[in-house]
Protein: Transmembrane protein 106C
Amino acid sequence: MSAYHRRARAASCRICEVLFLLAVFMGSWQSLQSSSLSPKCLAEDENDFLDSRDREEDIAKFPYVEFTGRDSITCPTCQGSGYIPTEQVNELVALIPYHDQRLKPRRTKFYVLVSVLLCLLASGLVVFFLFPHSVVVEDSGIKVVRVWFDRKNSLVILTITATLRIRNSNFYSVAVTSLTSQVQYMNSVVGTHQMNNVTTIQPLSDKLVNFTVKSKMGGPSFYAYFFCTLSRIRVHNIVIFMRTSVKISYFGHVTQSSLETHHYVDCGANSTTASGPEPTPTTPEDIALKKSSVGKPVVLQ
Structure:
């Protein structure tokens, strides 16, 4: 091999060595650069993550937020509190879209019809239960008649115990505030009687009320005394006229019922009529008459 070829081969080997060293140097430099840039990129990514997390925590502090995109805008009306201030209630107007379901409630006619029917039903029930019904006063006849003769004054004294049946058709109690009775014989008033705070009648029930009237006949009408003491007549029936007035109170309203009846009584002897259940005596006179209701008349000298 010539010297020229040996020198060329050595030069080429050196060039290869230089290129190899240059390649090694460039690779190490790029690796160093990449290693020096990686922490910086990681730091930036970590900062972006923390910023986004802080933003989410700030947003979570507000109960109400309008979201229009990545950034949020707090409601200018409630300032993020979720409710409207009281002083601004009369100043704010709510805007609702035309097609909002709240503007088209379902079954409106049905609810209105049901409400009207319920109101009518409640009104009807109130009127039915509270509207005043009639309180009927009926005559149950004369139960006991006690007779006394006053020969000195030519008087016939009758103690007449009569009974009234009062029927309450209301759904509430009624009070019988007063009872007034008058006995007439031959168009003359011979006895009167008045009772106050008589009784209370329960709803949808009836009650028997006793009252006693003391009557005196004779004096100018000597015919009554002569007829009642005539021994040849076995039964001494006379006709008396009784006018009874009853005042009834309920709900602050007072009504009056009057009853006019004619009765036959035996003025020559004591008598008792037992028809139906006997009413409970309500006065001391009734109790005394119940103990001795039948017998001979008492003659007063």
About this structure: The chain has three domains: 47-95, 101-130, 135-300. The radius of gyration is 58 Å. The domain at 135-300 is CATH 2.60.40.10 (Immunoglobulin-like).
